[in-house]
Design a protein that fits this description.
Number of domains: 2
Distance between the termini: 13 Å
Helix content: 55-70%
CATH class of the largest domain: Mainly Alpha
Number of strands: 10
CATH architecture of the largest domain: Up-down Bundle
Number of helices: 19
Length: 608
């Protein structure tokens, strides 16, 4: 039978199998943007570094005062050291004072940069820690509905934007604001009419900055969003290269990348162009202000209302006044980018944890009696996945779940592990509603072996130890022997110290499954879940895995999901599922004798 080639999109959430919500994924929802709230939340991270902030602001204040003294000394030197006759003592003293001031400014600037970098990096470290911790608290459903690359972009690119702004922009903003205030006060004290001429530029600058910032902010938000999408596509294309090449979809994938890249280019260009307008416009305003001040000073000096030294000081102050305005305008643009990134980071931090706080019961011991009563579930509204599921399983029993793809088999174990929350009915373990059981305690009683085994980029030994982190090397080897994995591990170049490549790419599917079973053996669970554990291996490897599974299942309550019906003949109870309902139940022989749905499934497999 001819089948259509799959779409190029390779993303699949990390659910416990193929029967999860893959048909109902939804992308991240754009939330209303609140710049003020975002800045307040960022400030909370900076506020934790009070000592460093106080020292940094103190050095900025000292630098500002010293910078203000410079033009005043220049004015004194002109008026008293030159215009009133050459006075070498005044000139020498002034030059030495100016040298000392500018040397002190340089040293203080280096100190404040060093302090602020430390402050910002500690704040960013805490923010990065918080978002990583939040990831550990989010439900599997959250990750099923989002691209890995897009999430990675929030942890890397967005936080890096915030880091860059806090490291330099924060000090520049404070320094610029203090400089403007100090220069304004000094100019008003020196000559208020001339000062008013200089200050005329402020309303115009504020209006220009506000207009341009509004335009660039939307561009920066789009830039961050498209960057996350592009990272998601890159992550998919790299991790799914085998699928791409197998179906010769390189051109289609390249075309998708080009389209996404073009969107990123457009949004980045819009943001950067508007942000780039700031520099030239501010330079024009500053030069115009400089000329107007010089002209106004010349007119006032004709009427002896201002001295030449004061005019020189004013012209210097005009430059000092213009520099922080430019500084703030440029920083404002980078702040827009940081705010856009911070909003995306805080969206993750605001996601509700899967831990509700209502889970007060800890399972110190677990017999393994499991009951599902009138269970209903849906991944999206109005699309039922499970309808009225009833299962009773006593300690040590093996329950097999069979049925066509999409029947709801994997969803049942997703609910038992509380990867998702059901909407109606109850699930109990030893008579206790699992919604009242502490999730960590619940999951420690469960051992899960999935069809798609995930292995970490570490040694074989440490991948097995993930089942119980306090396990000794001897316990790991003992678990491997029980799981029939010791023999192939022993033949590897470094045995248990052999490094496993990312996702276990240097191991066969069967070897990965045996390691997953070894991990489950080591965790010694009371309830075992085997989800299609042998569906992707050859017959000989399947026999090894089945033997390991039988050893693992001894004395444990077990839920086995299987497409190969020959593997579940010995199950205590087989539940046949179709369209979210249990349509038949019984032992293998009972179900064959009924000649119903199970009989047709079994017959079709062996006929094929």
């Amino acid at each position: 039978m001819k089948t259509a080639a799959p779409a190029v999109s390779l993303h699949r959430g990390p659910g416990t199998g193929h029967g999860g919500p893959s048909g109902h994924l939804r992308g991240p929802v754009e939330k209303p943007k609140d710049t003020k709230e975002t800045l307040i939340r960022l400030w909370k991270y900076l506020k934790a570094e009070k000592t460093g902030l106080v020292l940094a602001v103190s050095t900025v204040l000292a630098t500002t005062i010293l910078n203000i003294l410079g033009p005043t000394l220049i004015g004194i030197a002109i008026d008293k050291g030159i215009m009133s006759g050459i006075d070498y003592h005044v000139l020498r003293t002034t030059v030495l004072a100016l040298a000392g001031i500018y040397l002190a400014v340089t040293i203080l600037s280096l100190i404040q940069e060093w302090i602020m970098i430390g402050v910002s990096q500690r704040a960013i470290r805490q923010l990065r820690t918080d978002i990583f911790h939040r990831f550990q608290l989010l439900s599997v459903g959250f990750f099923d509905s989002r691209h890995l690359g897009e999430l990675m972009s929030r942890v890397t690119n967005d936080i890096e934007n915030i880091s860059n702004t806090l490291s330099s922009g924060f000090l520049e903003l404070i320094s610029g604001s203090l400089s403007i205030i100090a220069v304004t006060i000094v100019m008003l004290l020196l000559n208020w009419p001339l000062a008013l001429v200089c200050l005329m530029v402020i309303p115009v600058v504020i209006l220009i900055t506000k207009t341009i910032a509004g335009k660039s902010r939307s561009g920066f938000r789009l830039q961050q969003k498209h960057l996350g999408s592009l990272n998601g596509l890159i992550e998919e294309s790299i991790s799914g290269q085998r699928v791409v090449k197998a179906f010769t979809k390189e051109k289609e994938l390249t075309a998708r990348f080009a389209a996404n890249n073009k969107e990123l280019q457009y949004s980045s260009r819009k943001a950067q162009i508007y942000a780039g307008f700031m520099g030239p416009i501010m330079n024009m305003m500053n030069n115009l202000n400089y000329g107007v001040t010089a002209f106004a000073g010349g007119l006032l000096s004709m009427f002896d209302l201002v001295s030449v030294g004061t005019i020189a000081a004013f012209l210097s102050y005009t430059r000092q006044f213009a520099r922080p305005l430019n500084q703030i305008a440029q920083v404002y643009s980078s702040i827009q980018s940081a705010i856009a990134g911070a909003e995306r980071v805080f969206e993750i931090l605001d996601e509700p944890s899967e831990f509700t706080g209502a889970e007060t019961t800890a399972l110190s011991t677990c017999r393994g009696d499991v009951d599902f009563k009138n269970l209903h579930f849906r991944y999206v509204p109005d699309v039922p996945v499970l309808q009225g599921i009833d299962i009773h399983c006593t300690q040590g029993q093996t329950i097999a779940l069979v049925g066509p793809t999409g029947a709801g088999k994997t969803t049942i174990v997703n609910l038992l592990t509380r990867f998702y929350e059901y909407h109606q009915g109850t699930i109990t373990i030893d008579g206790i509603d699992i919604r009242s059981i502490d999730r960590s305690s619940l999951r420690k009683t469960l051992g899960i072996v999935l069809q798609d085994t995930f292995l970490f980029s570490d040694t074989v030994k440490e991948n097995i130890r993930y089942g119980r982190l306090d396990a000794t090397d001897e316990e790991i080897i003992h678990a491997a022997k029980i799981a029939n994995a010791h023999q192939f591990i022993h033949r590897m170049p470094k045995g248990y110290d052999t490094h496993v490549s990312e996702s276990g790419a240097n191991l066969s599917q069967g070897q990965r499954q045996l390691l997953a079973i070894t991990r489950a053996v080591l965790s010694d669970p009371s309830i075992l879940i085997l989800d299609e554990a042998t569906s992707s291996v050859d017959t000989r490897t399947e026999l090894h895995i089945q033997e390991a599974m039988l050893k693992l299942m001894e004395g444990r309550t077990s839920f086995v999901i299987a497409h190969r019906l020959s593997t579940i003949k010995t199950a205590d109870q087989i539940l046949v599922m179709n369209q979210g309902r249990i349509v038949e139940r019984g032992t293998h022989h009972e179900l064959l004798g009924k000649g119903g749905f199970y009989h047709s499934l079994y017959k079709s497999q062996f006929t094929l």
